[in-house]
Amino acid sequence: MDDYVDIIVNSENICVLTGAGISAESGIPTFRGVGGMWAKYRPEDLATPEAFAANPRLVWEWYQARREAVSRAVPNAGHMALAGWEKLARSFVLVTQNVDGLHLAAGSRHVLELHGNIRRNRCTACGRESTMDEITFDGRPPVCGCGGMLRPGVVWFGEALPEAVLNEAFAAARECDLFLTVGTSAVVYPAAALPRLALDRGVPVIEVNTEETPFSAGATCSLRGPAGEILPQLVAAYASAPHRSRQTS
Ligand code: BJW
Ligand code: ZN
């Protein structure tokens, strides 16, 4: 890591892409890899519009169980470190694939939720949005005031990501001078295109992950370990750089 501290501390416009791995230390299971949810469930059985149309009850049960885990979870040292980093950098955009809302709970402000938020619902008929606290789940898929069936407010395979949010994420990847990927297997598009876009511009891309990923070999630097341990070290180095201490004192 020491070889890359200079690159990190001299960066001012930072873009970070996070995935399920950053919330693993808050007790939320990842999708793939060791202990991942999809060792038990096939994504096409649960996270597609087709799966929902075929068996809305099964999909709702899965999401309600995950919502319970999310509502018990609190941000960990990795989330907190990113929230602190945002306060130190000139520009800091936090793009997340996570639907658990833990970056906002940690105090991060410039958060782009690419895949929606599990705490929200959307009516499949009128599009009205509601929160998870506004519904009761008695085993049957809940229904909107208009009579339409509600669905979780997340993005499933084959669905478009929210356009304005995605555009802002691409702009951040095009404008940053440092890009970090944290706790993502980097296999789901279009999110996985963001670090590749930064690399193609010659911008350093630092990966933080407990395991090797398909992106590791191409990354400028791959830091192997838990985000909750590595991110606080990066932020401490960033905060204590001599030129930055002068600016903030
Ligand atoms: C730690 C750690 C610790 C553990 N510290 N690290 C072929 C090529 C290109 C694209 C496609 C293709 N075929 C199909 C597509 C498109 C498809 C796609 O990318 N598929 C690939 C799988 C091939 N993409 C889509 O369909 C997207 N939409 C789209 O393309 O629309 C086009 C369109 C345009 C216009 C009109 C209509 C359509 C949508 C993708 C939606 C993804 N949705 C999900 C579910 C969200 C809801 C929910 O939560 O239920 O999003 S899938 C799931 O994967 C979830 C995640 O956000 C996403 C990414 O996973 P993530 O975050 O990387 O987690 P993991 O588990 O994979 O990795 C965790 C990592 O953490 C691991 O590496 C661990 O090692 C590490 N780790 N502990 C640090 N403590
Ligand atoms: Zn409705």
Descriptive keywords:
249 residues; alpha/beta; Rossmann fold; SIR2/SIRT2 'Small Domain'; 2 domains; 6-stranded parallel β-sheet; 3-stranded antiparallel β-sheet; 11 helices; elongated; binds ligand BJW; binds zinc ion
Q: How would you explain this protein's 3D organization?
A:
There is one protein chain. By secondary structure, the protein is of the alpha/beta class. The chain has 2 domains: 2-27 and 75-115 and 161-248, Rossmann fold, CATH 3.40.50.1220; 36-72 and 119-154, SIR2/SIRT2 'Small Domain'. It is 38% helix and 18% strand. The chain is built from 11 helices and 9 strands. The protein has helices at residues 5-9, 21-24, 43-46, 49-54, 56-72, 77-88, 102-106, 163-175, 193-200, 227-240, 242-248, and strands spanning 13-18, 91-96, 111-113, 116-123, 129-131, 150-154, 178-182, 205-209, 221-224. The strands form 2 sheets. The chain has a 6-stranded parallel sheet with strand order 3-2-1-7-8-9, sandwiched between helices. It has a 3-stranded antiparallel sheet with strand order 5-4-6, with helices on one face. Strand 7, helix 9 and strand 8 (205-209) form a beta-alpha-beta unit. The chain is elongated. The two termini are 26 Å apart. The mean pLDDT is 93. The chain binds ligand BJW and zinc ion. The site of zinc ion (ZN) has 7 residues, from loops.
